[in-house]
Structures are given as C-alpha cells and as structure tokens.
C-alpha cells in the first residue's frame, strides 16, 4: 500500500535542510576568514621579527666596527657618516632587504617589508666635553603595529632592535618616499638614557598613520646629549608639552630676523632684503648659480651647504626653529632633490640649543648643477 506524505511535511523538511546548509556555509566562511586573519597576523609577526633580527645584527656589527676605528666611513668611497652603505657592502644586511632607492637607482638602500627604508649613520656626541661616536638609525614609514613593537626600550638600553640604545623615539614625517637625506619630522615621543619606554605614550605616538622610528646606539658610553644629526625642534623634552613633544616647532614670536642674506631681519623672522638662496633652477634658460657658501661635488651630484634640512611645513617658513645641532652643521643636498624640505641657517646659540632661520624651500626634483658661467 502506498503512503502519501502531506506536502507541508515535505516543505518543512526542505526548510530545515536549507537552514542547515546556510549554517554550514557560515561556519565555513568563518573558518576561512579566521585562517586569513591568522595568516596575515603570522606574516606580520614574521616581518617584525625579521626586521628586529636584522637591526640587532647590523647594530652589533657597526658598534664593534666603530670601536675599532674612529669613523665607519674611512674608505674614500663612502660618504662621511654614511653607515648604511658600509653595512650593505660589508654583507651585514640580508640580501632580501637590499634594494635600489626610488629616484636614485644607483643607490642601494635597506628596504623593510612595509616599503620604508632604514638609514644608518655615524654621528657625533659629547660626554664630559669629549667627542665620541654614536650610531644613529632611522626606520621610515613604519605601520602602527611595527612602530609599537620595535619602538620599545628598557632603561638599560635593551630593545628589539639591539642593545646599547640610549635614545629611542617616534617622529611624524610627511615624507613617504625614500628619505635618503635624514630629513627629520615632528617629535611625538622619545625615551632617553636611563628611561623605560612609556607604553601608553608610545601607543599614542604611533597611532594615526605611518611613523618614523629613530634610535641612537652608544659606542663607548652614554653621551651627555643627543647627537647633532638629530635636528628636530626642542628635542630635549623640558616639559613644554606632554610626552616630551613640543607644542610648536617654530618661534612664532620672530625675535630674530631670517638669514636670507642682506640687511637686518624684521621682527617676524622674514629676513633681510638680500636672498642668499641663489638663482632659480633655470627658468627661460637661466643657469642656476648657487650661493657662494654652497660647495658642489660633481662626482656625487650633491651640494654641501651650511645649515640643517627639515621636512617641509608651511608654518616653518619665515620662522626660527630650535635644534641641538652644532652651529657649523652642514647638509648634503642631492641633485635632483629626492624630497620636499626646508633649509635653515644658523642664527644664534643659547646654552646647548641652537636657533636656525628659514632660508630656502626645496621641492622634490628641484636643484640642478651650477651653470658654466657661475
């Protein structure tokens, strides 16, 4: 005898099967998404650990080499103070992190997995009046997670990027191309010698976008202050604002005129009548004639100029910035310029601080060799 099932019963069973299918699909998607997230996190952890291992290795190598010689760039083929080239050519950097610079294919750089580069320099600092070498390091364009993990140090100088770190800080820098010229940005936080990193302050400094990490390694003892290469405004954290980050990087009071060259500066820091920045970059066929205090190196295609170079910020134009640079500090300007920046010349000293007046804005791609008639 044939049994006939009601249509409603059949429909109810189909509905249950459909719900189960949807649930299976949701579970499968959750597993797939979870696997992707886990893979991404694992890959990011691997990248961070790879960079940390590279920095620990290369910093130890450079510290050992610098102890043996007074200058890591003693060989004539290296630019003075350039420890990046030394580290790469000596084989201290793993091959998968060596790349060519953007806009300068003849220049080798240390490229991190997130696209930014690592710049290493030998810098000068003083301890009890004696000049001593230190190693300066800049990691450009770190994502927030890497900034927080690599930006921590202990009071004794240990960190994920090596030992003997006497200062480790975070900058906000608008340069997202290869920062070959060590153009500094706004200091957001720094932990100095004898200080543990404040994790809350570090998190606040790292959030909101890509950041630059800067570190200084002592070679033969902790110096009294930061080296001259560290040319951000008010870097010695005297309590003018939270987290050792100055409220303003310019002297809006304009107590001294700019150093544009001629005449007395006006009170707004706009400078005198003359213009020591030289001619333009060659409009209508005019040759570029640099100022007389600029030195041209044709072999390296760069000018050596007096003063400091900071990343461009409109509020700095016509104003004075504060630094720890020596009054005789010089800057190397590549031709053509690889980044947009502002140039400042020495104005005066006050204690350990030096004051610098704005003299020239440089756009990326600007600057050409001096003309034949200059």
Can you put this structure into words, describing what you see?
Helix content is 22%, strand content 26%. It is of the alpha+beta class. It folds into two domains: 44-230, TcpA-like pilin (2-Layer Sandwich); 248-374, no CATH class. Helix 3 (144-150) runs antiparallel to helix 4. The longest helix has 62 residues, at 7-68. The chain is globular, with a radius of gyration of 27 Å. The relative contact order is 0.10. Residues 70-80 and 231-285 have low confidence and may be disordered.
Quick structural overview:
The chain is α+β, with helices and mostly antiparallel strands and 374 residues long. 22% of the residues lie in helices and 26% in strands.
Question: Could you name the key traits of this structure?
Answer:
374 residues, alpha+beta, TcpA-like pilin, 7-stranded antiparallel sheet, 4-stranded antiparallel sheet, 22% helix, 26% strand, globular
């Amino acid at each position: 005898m044939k049994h006939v099932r009601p249509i409603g019963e059949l429909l109810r069973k189909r509905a249950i099967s459909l719900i189960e299918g949807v649930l299976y699909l949701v579970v499968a998607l959750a597993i797939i998404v979870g696997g992707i997230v886990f893979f991404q996190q694992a890959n990011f952890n691997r990248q961070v650990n790879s960079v940390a291992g590279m920095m620990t290795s290369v910093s130890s190598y450079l510290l050992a080499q610098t102890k043996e010689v007074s200058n890591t760039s003693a060989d004539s083929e290296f630019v003075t103070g350039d420890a990046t080239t030394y580290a790469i050519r000596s084989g201290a950097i793993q091959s998968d992190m060596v790349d060519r610079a953007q806009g300068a294919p003849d220049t080798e750089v240390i490229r991190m997995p997130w696209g930014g580069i690592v710049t290493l320099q030998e810098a000068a600092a003083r301890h009890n009046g004696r000049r001593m070498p230190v190693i300066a390091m800049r990691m450009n364009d770190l994502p927030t997670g890497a900034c927080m993990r690599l930006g921590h140090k202990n009071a004794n100088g240990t960190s994920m990027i090596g030992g003997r770190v006497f200062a480790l800080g975070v900058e906000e820098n608008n340069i997202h191309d290869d920062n070959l010229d060590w153009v500094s940005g706004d200091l957001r936080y720094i932990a100095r010698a004898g200080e543990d990193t404040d994790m809350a302050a570090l998190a606040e400094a790292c959030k909101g976008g890509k950041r630059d990490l800067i570190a200084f390694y002592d070679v033969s003892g902790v110096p009294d202050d930061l080296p001259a290469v560290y040319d951000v405004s008010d870097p010695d954290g005297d309590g003018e604002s939270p987290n050792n980050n100055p409220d303003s990087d310019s002297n809006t009071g304009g107590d001294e005129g700019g150093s544009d060259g001629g005449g007395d500066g006006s009170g707004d820091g706009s400078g005198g009548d003359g213009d020591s920045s030289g001619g333009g970059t060659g409009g209508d066929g005019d040759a570029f004639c640099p100022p007389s205090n600029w030195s041209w190196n044709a072999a390296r295609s760069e000018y050596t100029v007096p003063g400091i170079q900071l990343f461009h910020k409109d509020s700095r134009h016509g104003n004075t910035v504060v630094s720890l640079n020596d009054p005789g500090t010089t800057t190397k300007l590549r031709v053509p310029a690889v980044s947009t920046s502002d140039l400042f010349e020495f104005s005066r000293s006050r204690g350990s601080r030096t004051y610098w007046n704005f003299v020239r804005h440089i756009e990326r791609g600007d600057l050409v060799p001096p003309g034949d008639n200059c």
